[in-house]
Amino acid sequence: MRGIVAFYLTYLLCLILGIICVALVVHWNYSYRGGFAWDGSAKHFNWHPVFMVTGMVVLYGNAAILYRIPLTWGHNKLPWKLLHAGLLLLSFILSVIGLCAVFNYHNANNISNLYSLHSWVGICTTALFTAQWVMGFSTFLLPCTPMSARAFIKPTHVWMGGIILVLSIVSCISGINEKLFFALKENTNGTLPYSALPPEAITANSLGVIIVAFGLVVLKILSNQIWQRPETGYEEGVYQVKDKGFYDVFDYSLIVCNLRTKT
Amino acid sequence: MRGIVAFYLTYLLCLILGIICVALVVHWNYSYRGGFAWDGSAKHFNWHPVFMVTGMVVLYGNAAILYRIPLTWGHNKLPWKLLHAGLLLLSFILSVIGLCAVFNYHNANNISNLYSLHSWVGICTTALFTAQWVMGFSTFLLPCTPMSARAFIKPTHVWMGGIILVLSIVSCISGINEKLFFALKENTNGTLPYSALPPEAITANSLGVIIVAFGLVVLKILSNQIWQRPETGYEEGVYQVKDKGFYDVFDYSLIVCNLRTKT
């Protein structure tokens, strides 16, 4: 019972941090950056951080920890699989809109695309996320995929899930940092420079810190083996290959012992 | 045997990526940023990325995976504990020198300290690393610490170890990105702007990508339960509390079952 209470308290923290992330990124761009438009102006760019933080961090993180919620531990996993895939698809769509926002803005203003390290890491993250979703869908939702293939791919799928979140956070922090250096220059529209830490800088820096905190809480939930969905077999089938991912409850002592004996 | 070969191949990749990281960060600052000095000039700043990447990423990552090397799996763990703590202390000292470099440079040039999101995340990472080292030393190296306390703290120590590496990578990527926007401006010393991707931008962006790749390989080594140091008891003692960290081989099925029965 104590484990369940601890989980729900951590999950509540995760939800609160996620809501604060979305509220702060909207507030930053609405109150300090002039709001939103889809017309090639600076307001067009403002959709980029909003959609990336909402899609690639908050929605993605919540989709990743779905199976850790004890409410989802009923016999039939299929509805939760569909919800997991659906939330991640929504997260992917938001990310693509966020990418369109920045590409459109750059193209409308003759700014080069994909030159900064932020953009290199960001585009790799989105590419990995796309591959992960397609692989996840074809492995875990197509009925024709053999159980042995699902069991074989699951550890990689789970590990990649955590890594994509880490890369999303790397992209967000470098992007917010870059944007603040661009936007907060001395004598530009009367704003104070970033180095003077005006209210906008405090707001966006705090957003960055809360994104990191959200990511750490999600990674903690994913990594805590005691909060895993308990399953001794894989749905109707039985694991053919033992899991060896981040988060699995299966016992590896025997494998390790065998390994040592053989060497 | 196959597990050992796979480990050593991954470890070799980790070593190669680490060496490339150090070589690239030195090359970038030596060949493109004018080299090194300790005189308050821009060359003084150049020590900052070199020491942070070498200390907080490469040396730290290698220290973190020390116990995964099968060579270290002998009966006596103490020499490896001392090496683990020693490498991390060296990593910490390099990081402090790296921080001194940037603070000295800022102070000598009347530039504010600790205002950017990069610096906020970076200073939190160093603070966490300090706390982790002190906690690790007092828990695992002081003979007076009870075995039960060691077993209780170990999962948190292991988890925090991975998280500090993630935060170091976040700090490095945002820092390299920031530095390139500062350094590569049109009409500054005849350099091409960052957006034109001159050779310096390609070099430093590649450094960022290789830092990320190095971090992912280290996290993969840490998370692969089959590569863990096998230990059924804690040194001379026996675990009093079951581990529930990222990387432990112990079986949690029973705990999960008990949890479900009790609720």
UniProtKB/TrEMBL annotation, chains A, B:
Enzyme class, broadest EC rank: translocase
EC number(s) on file: 7.2.1.3
Topology class, membrane: Multi-pass membrane protein
Keyword Zinc set for record: no
Keyword Disulfide bond assigned: no
Cofactor field: heme b
PROSITE patterns in the cross-refs: CYTOCHROME_B561 (PS50939)
Subcellular location: Late endosome membrane; Lysosome membrane
Gene3D superfamilies cross-referenced by the UniProt entry: 1.20.120.1770
Record field: transmembrane: 7-30, 50-70, 82-105, 117-144, 156-176, 202-222
One Gene Ontology cellular component annotation held by this UniProt entry: lysosomal membrane
Free-text function comment from the UniProt entry: Transmembrane reductase that uses ascorbate as an electron donor in the cytoplasm and transfers electrons across membranes to reduce iron cations Fe(3+) into Fe(2+) in the lumen of the late endosome and lysosome. Reduced iron can then be extruded from the late endosome and lysosome to the cytoplasm by divalent metal-specific transporters. It is therefore most probably involved in endosomal and lysosomal cellular iron homeostasis.
Domain Cytochrome b561: 13-223
Major localization listed first in the record, in broad terms: membrane
Keywords per UniProt: Electron transport, Endosome, Glycoprotein, Heme, Iron, Lysosome, Membrane, Metal-binding, Oxidoreductase, Translocase, Transmembrane, Transmembrane helix, Transport
Gene Ontology molecular functions: metal ion binding; transmembrane ascorbate ferrireductase activity
Name assigned to this protein: Lysosomal membrane ascorbate-dependent ferrireductase CYB561A3
Quaternary structure and partners: Homodimer.
